[in-house]
DNA sequence: TATGAATGAGGTTTCATTCAT
DNA sequence: GATGAATGAAACCTCATTCAT
């Protein structure tokens, strides 16, 4: 009997927690959809709760404000991005920029909606984690673990990471408008640019 | 007498026009200052009119809404950018990417406040003209007028322009945070990256 | 066996009742603490249930709303006040105002927190029993049982009770701010004022 | 022409100011009415603006929040009370408690609605000026300027003022419930109590 | 009986926009 | 053309209350 009541108790606790988690997930999914459609600033709490089919107040049971929901969303995805890219890169013998960039583009493609929101929100939202920083951080790691560090002696690594991030971010924005090419072609083009640069004839007078 | 009054009239007209133009300029200058300080979304019309020391209603005599004022501001600056870059490039014998990028960075540096607003606002503002587009357009022109067009045969020119724009935009954002290096070093680093790419050892397995 | 189960049943019932009473007491104690700290209006049900360490819903198993909890609290204390003052007064040979006022001040001093809430809440709470009424009622009883009723012939007794209550209430509020003097000095000062009034020179022209 | 335009200008300014003042007065009058009817806490901004027949936003053009409006109201009335009582007292040859108390009761009677709100709000509202303090301050002044100061040597003047205030406040609350007697009778009864105290037989055992 | 997640009415507050002067 | 008081839609957020577990 004692055991029984205990079991009931934990079950009860568990049910509550499960329901709570479900609602939270619904809210995040709804937020993602609405943010993608209307952008951060034109999205109201009501928009989100209606999309999630919950009461307004429920939102505040899970997030302090719009900012927190947004950050949670972004953090979650970029945490996954980071982990996934790291995993994918590890599965190869050595860390190469090629694999990293490919991995980023693939992941970004799969999560286009969130990436475009995150990039579009730019410096607008008081966010703890910026997309660009996540990407740049990953790139820095690649640079630091380069097989021949001497090759990078003359480069300012953080700046380099930032510039390369610019190319990647722009690629993702490009997708948001154009809906082509696929992630692998995109990665390929970016990598081609990064590997060989542009034709010398563009830089010098005839 | 008729002439006299006519003259007076035109003078008065002229005065009115000058006064109007002055108010408008005040508003734009104020908008620029406030946007730079508080960002697009946190700036209210009242913020602008107070900074310009005019009545709220006056704003609406010159602009339909905040968006229009913002776009006017951006357009103006980018129009100047475009003209200036074109002029500077023309003063050289041939259009080269080096000169173009240098010119862009110099101009951007001189107008850092507006550039950072424009870049930070990202896709937030329902704007017809995006900074990135202005830059990309300029780059496309450079690519099209390349001295040896055959060199670019294998490139997707618009995408290329977009990616290069990403590098430039990121460079400007870098400034907004770091306040170093100067425009010419920045252009140099970007050009180095664009000209030679990164060391091959980053791309391949050992 | 029947008896046994019955016994068990009643025991269980009893346990339940005791548990229930405990919860209720916890809630009242918590309410008292929170009301004293934050005031009636700034106290939410959640504040109370958290302080009592019970679920929100539990509150509603014991009280209809905040008002009822508040009234219960107040009623309880004033019921005790009434009983105690009556008992103390009875222990003397005759009812005198001195003993009554002293008794009230002593009791109020012992329960300062609740008295200050009750007085501060003023007419804010839709309450059936006002502190002032409880005191006034006690005073009326004293007046009615006066040893020489003729002495009070010219007085409007309810109004008199009300005015004297005003003095007492103000004395308690004074404590809340000043934290001095003790209950007996306070009673003494009030009684001195009530017994002899103020110097005649204050009322007339020289 | 210059004069003309100047005149026009000041007139225009003046009109605006007049309109503004009118609206503000409307809001205060409405607030007074609603506060008196529903009490401080049950009054919403909307209640006030609807009663004043202005838009919601207009309220915030004149007051920061409900508190400020309330305080303005109270301050205004008590400022008038103070001035009026002072004036009335001055018109007599010497300051006496009789005149002061009479004056307070008369004024309170004329402004019953506000007094009852102010007294009922008790310590609820974060107010800079409490009614009781205003009255007590006035009484202290009377005591200090007593014709024969020696008579008050044995009294704690601030406490005394506070206690007397209690009597007056209670008198006003009495009116709010009972609607009788008039101000002068009320003052008379209070003064009688204050002058002679209660019959000695109430205090001692037979 | 106790719980606490969910609800949504209702309050506060802001601000783009209008319009009489 | 310039002004700024007034407007009210629309956002935010809280909290008393319910109800399934």
UniProtKB/TrEMBL annotation, chains A, B, C, D:
The keyword Nucleus appears for this protein: no
Region (Disordered): 1-22
Pfam families assigned to the protein according to its UniProt record, in alphabetical order: TetR_N (PF00440)
Biased composition (Basic residues): 12-22
Ranges of residues in domain HTH tetR-type: 21-81
Biased composition (Basic and acidic residues): 1-11
DNA-binding region: 44-63
InterPro entries to which the protein is assigned, alphabetical: Homeodomain-like_sf, HTH-type_Tx_Regulator, HTH_TetR
GO molecular function: DNA binding
Keywords, comma-separated and alphabetical: DNA-binding
PANTHER family found in the cross-reference section: ACREF/ENVCD OPERON REPRESSOR-RELATED, ACREF_ENVCD OPERON REPRESSOR-RELATED
Full protein name: HTH tetR-type domain-containing protein
Provenance organism: Dictyobacter alpinus
């Amino acid at each position: 009997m004692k055991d029984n009541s205990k079991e009931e108790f934990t079950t009860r606790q568990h049910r509550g927690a499960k329901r709570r988690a479900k609602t939270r997930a619904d809210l995040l999914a709804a937020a993602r959809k609405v943010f993608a459609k209307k952008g951060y600033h034109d999205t109201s709490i009501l928009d989100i709760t209606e999309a999630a089919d919950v009461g307004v107040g429920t939102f505040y049971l899970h997030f302090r404000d719009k900012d927190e929901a947004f950050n949670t969303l972004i953090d979650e995805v970029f945490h996954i991005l980071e982990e996934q890219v790291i995993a994918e890169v590890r599965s190869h013998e050595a860390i190469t920029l090629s694999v990293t960039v490919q991995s980023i583009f693939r992941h970004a493609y799969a999560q286009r909606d969130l990436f475009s929101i995150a990039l579009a929100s730019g410096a607008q939202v008081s966010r703890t984690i910026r997309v660009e920083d996540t990407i740049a951080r990953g790139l820095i790691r690649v640079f630091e673990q380069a097989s021949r560090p001497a090759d990078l002696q003359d480069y300012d690594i953080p700046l380099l990471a930032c510039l390369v991030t610019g190319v990647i971010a722009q690629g993702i924005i490009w997708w948001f408008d154009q809906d082509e090419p696929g992630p692998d072609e995109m990665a390929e083009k970016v990598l081609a640019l990064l590997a060989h640069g542009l034709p010398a004839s563009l830089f010098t007078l005839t």
